[in-house]
Input
Amino acid sequence: ITQITKDNINSIKDLYLLFRNAEISFKYSRIRNTDNFSANLSDESFIEAIIQLFNLWIEDESQLITISNFREFIQMLITGNSLSCCYQKDCYILSFTPEGKIYFCDRSFNTGALGDYRKSSISDVELAIRRNIKNIDIKKSHCHHCRFNKVCNGGCLYNRINGWFSHECYATKSILEYIGNYLKSQGYEIIA
Output
């Protein structure tokens, strides 16, 4: 995973060429919720950098590498199916600590454990998660009216359970819009 930060935002082409020349596929991520505010990017800066990265990747005739975010967004827009947990309707990946604590996923380590595998059964923890999933009402959120809801499902399930629908929404919608327009210009029919 390559982090996109203020430190490398002006070197997106160099970053892409570094991976391409080494024939290393990668995934990008954005620094978020960090105390190191010097590394944080505005939505607009992040979107601009990712669109530049997409253009470099899609126009590269060598096709030596895959940027998994773009592969996923293209699949989501064309088929409506997601490869990763982040955009699936009810995906979660239980995470465990050496001390025995069970967490919803690796994003939830700061919010409290769901149980302890030495004291609780994993099936009880999963049952509690499924009950929470059923209580999420997308129709009451801003996601209900969003045209991308059918491909992103409101984003990360952990964020949805906690009512954090807009965590990265603006940037994701802008990037999906750009990639969707590119796909339409190439004759693809997209879902959103």
Summary: The CA atoms of residues 9 and 49 lie 6 Å apart. Helices lie at 12-21, 43-58, 68-79, 122-134, 149-152, 157-161, 169-185. The chain is about 40% helix and 5% strand. The mean pLDDT is 83.
